Protein: ATP phosphoribosyltransferase
Amino acid sequence: MLRIAIPNKGTLSAPASQMLRDAGYRQRTDPKDLVCRDEANNVEFFYLRPRDIATYVGSGDLDLGITGRDLLVDSGVPAAELLDLGFGGATFRWAAPAGTLTSADEIAGRRIATAYPGVVEQHLAEHNLKADVVRLDGAVENAVRLGVADVIADVVETGATLRQAGLVTIGEPILRSSAVLIGRHATAAPNGVAQLMRRLQGVLVARSYVMLAYDVRADLLEQATGLTPGIESPTVSPLHREGWVAVQAMVLRKEVHRIMDELYELGARAILVTDIHNCRL
Ligand SMILES: Nc1ncnc2c1ncn2[C@@H]1O[C@H](COP(=O)(O)OP(=O)(O)OP(=O)(O)O)[C@@H](O)[C@H]1O
Ligand SMILES: O=P(O)(O)OC[C@H]1O[C@H](OP(=O)(O)OP(=O)(O)O)[C@H](O)[C@@H]1O
Ligand SMILES: [Mg+2]
Structure:
């Protein structure tokens, strides 16, 4: 049975469970449950702190895990990132009170408060910088105002927490994070991993693409399919009306409105968009 760690709480917990549900797996119904067996799919899920997940996977006690890229780096565990799951996106950045620091080079010699000392120390070492790292558990935005540190390094999603604390970001992000599927090795995966990854990739594609269908005059087909090339190639079927064809193709959800406008301008009609629930490409 494949054993998978998933976040029990926090930002990544609900979307991780939802993605697994969308991929056809059973998930806990009670948020207090710590284990959920999915007999039909031969998988067992363990609900753990996202910060601990890399440790269980790196030791080989669990086969796979879902955690944040920043948490994986912070753990220092040499587990492999197998798939970017497309949710839980955030940057990990330096921040300081407005007007105090202007560039990341000025971090040298400062006191840095963070809940991610592993990420910060790795970054300092890679850039040959020396600084004091003050390890805190959370609410690090308070550390500067309370005199514990000069700079913070923390997760920034909307930036609202920084603004409230009177802090501004300094320099480029230290890293860009999102939820990732991790395993012990990039290759030599245990039985069942390839199927689970295909299912998750099916969910990712279904989330980012829609199915577009339209009717167009046959003499405009080349121009129309230029706008909707699909993944392999668009499906073209004859219409009962002489000189017209029906076209079906997958298009990126974020581009669908622009493409519909362009198709309409070209002369296409009966342009319909439908969601894709799941797929295997
Ligand atoms: N707005 C956000 N706040 C915190 N973490 C976020 C956010 N958006 C994405 N993440 C990611 O979630 C992971 C941190 O999750 P974790 O559960 O440890 O903290 P949390 O969601 O802040 O929960 P809590 O602090 O309540 O324990 C990291 O990978 C981080 O990059
Ligand atoms: O850029 P934003 O959208 O404001 O989100 C980022 C903030 O959210 C998280 O804090 P959380 O509320 O989890 O508190 P914590 O610091 O105690 O973990 C994170 O640590 C940042 O402080
Ligand atoms: Mg938090």
